[in-house]
């Protein structure tokens, strides 16, 4: 049994001081004094938060999900634990079917194995069911129409599918996914009109992939996917690196969506955590300079910023305090994929997924299911 003392414990509705968090694999209790024979962890006055959950991340430290190897998955898991991430969805790219299924097979294997880092809770399939006109950094050569047969074998591993609903003829794919799986449909890399996006949302699409990026934009007569995102009850992924979206719009997004429907993600690529230089994404050359990752065409190619920094940026440019901003990278993503019964907040009986942050959201320790996976 372990105890965290001398910390500000961040709950969904309040921050507790002068309390002790007691846990093993699960959260056991919040008490006034540490029980006897408890392994003591001193938070040194820092914030004791739920572990962060990244539901959209391709790679880190020179490795990519699409490498499809044990080394790649474990390297990503260990490296992102340094930033307070306790669980994540390794995210695939638009590539050939064999490469995608190989990556998913590796992910599936590590859903039941120790990565020595953040826990793998499934995968996010970004493409190949997208629109070439908004492909962004995805490879157009491998874009295909959505088919249920493509994913059927992996419906227990895939937690999110990013797709362009306008490419779903008669919404047959949407109907089959909603009727036969618990997979979240997320609209992204899409040229859908406002009405097409609304139709998909009405039929069960519940997320928007990296809002504003890779989709039909907001126009006063043609509101597009962005308009549907801001005017319906969907979860909206946001890359808060101040590059993908101008920081002055963070409060605008918050005002429209509210704190319960925004999910901060990294969309990190293999260059995350490394210096400027040339890297790869989905078999395409990526040039990283001054925290910006771009294809040779100039298109943005994911980000290189860690999730705790995204959280800090959003807090620093909105009216959210520590308690509220942490929700955007913990309980919100957990709720969006239906795992909030065990992850996403510090509650008795939930997994002991914990991150200790200072006031600037620098990570001092990360814990997954009671095990320390990173210590500064």
Automatic annotation (TrEMBL):
Cofactor note: Binds 1 divalent metal cation per subunit.
Catalytic activity reported: N-acetyl-D-glucosamine 6-phosphate + H2O = D-glucosamine 6-phosphate + acetate
Protein EC: 3.5.1.25
This protein's pathway: Amino-sugar metabolism; N-acetylneuraminate degradation; D-fructose 6-phosphate from N-acetylneuraminate: step 4/5
Keywords annotated in UniProt: Carbohydrate metabolism, Hydrolase, Metal-binding
GO biological process, alphabetically ordered: N-acetylglucosamine catabolic process
InterPro entries: Amidohydro-rel (IPR006680), GlcNAc_6-P_deAcase (IPR003764), Metal-dep_hydrolase_composite (IPR011059), Metal_Hydrolase (IPR032466)
Cofactor(s) recorded in Swiss-Prot or TrEMBL: a divalent metal cation
Residues at the active site: 267 (proton donor/acceptor)
Binding site for substrate: 137, 213-214, 221, 244, 300-302
Gene Ontology terms for molecular function: metal ion binding; N-acetylglucosamine-6-phosphate deacetylase activity
Family, per entry: Belongs to the metallo-dependent hydrolases superfamily. NagA family.
Annotated protein name in UniProt: N-acetylglucosamine-6-phosphate deacetylase
Native organism taxonomy: Bacteria, Bacillati, Bacillota, Clostridia, Peptostreptococcales
């Amino acid at each position: 049994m372990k105890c965290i003392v001398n910390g500000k414990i961040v709950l969904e509705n309040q921050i507790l001081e002068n309390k002790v968090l007691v846990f093993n694999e699960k959260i056991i209790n919040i008490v006034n004094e540490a029980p006897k024979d408890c392994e003591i962890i001193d938070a040194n006055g820092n914030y004791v938060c739920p572990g962060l959950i990244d539901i959209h991340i391709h790679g880190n430290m020179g490795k990519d999900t699409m490498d499809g190897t044990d080394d790649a998955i474990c390297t990503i898991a260990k490296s992102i634990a340094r930033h307070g991430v306790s669980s994540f969805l390794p995210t695939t790219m638009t590539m050939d079917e064999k490469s995608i299924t190989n990556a998913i097979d590796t992910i599936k294997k590590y859903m039941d194995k120790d990565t020595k880092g953040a826990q793998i809770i499934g995968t996010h399939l970004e493409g190949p069911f997208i629109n070439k006109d908004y492909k962004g950094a995805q490879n157009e050569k491998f874009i295909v129409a959505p088919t249920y047969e493509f994913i059927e074998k992996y419906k227990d591993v895939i937690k999110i599918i990013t797709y362009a609903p306008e490419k779903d003829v008669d919404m047959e794919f949407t109907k089959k996914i909603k009727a036969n799986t618990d997979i979240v449909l997320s609209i992204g890399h899409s040229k859908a009109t406002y009405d097409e996006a609304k139709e998909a949302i009405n039929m069960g699409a519940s997320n928007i992939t990296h809002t504003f990026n890779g989709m039909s934009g907001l126009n006063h007569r043609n509101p597009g996917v962005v308009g549907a995102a801001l005017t319906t009850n969907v979860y909206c992924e946001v890359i808060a690196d101040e590059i993908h979206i101008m920081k002055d719009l963070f409060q605008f997004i918050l005002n429209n969506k509210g704190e319960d429907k925004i999910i901060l993600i990294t969309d990190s690529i293999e260059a995350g955590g490394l210096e400027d230089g040339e890297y790869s994404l989905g078999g395409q050359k990526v040039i990283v300079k001054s925290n910006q990752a771009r294809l040779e065409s100039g298109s943005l190619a994911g980000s290189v910023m860690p999730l705790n920094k995204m959280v800090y940026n959003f807090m620093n440019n909105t009216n959210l305090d520590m308690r509220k901003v942490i929700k955007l990278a913990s309980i919100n993503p957990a709720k969006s994929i239906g795992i909030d019964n065990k992850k996403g907040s510090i509650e008795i009986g939930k997994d002991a997924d914990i991150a200790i942050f200072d006031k600037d959201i620098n990570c001092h320790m990360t814990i997954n299911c009671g095990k320390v996976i990173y210590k500064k």
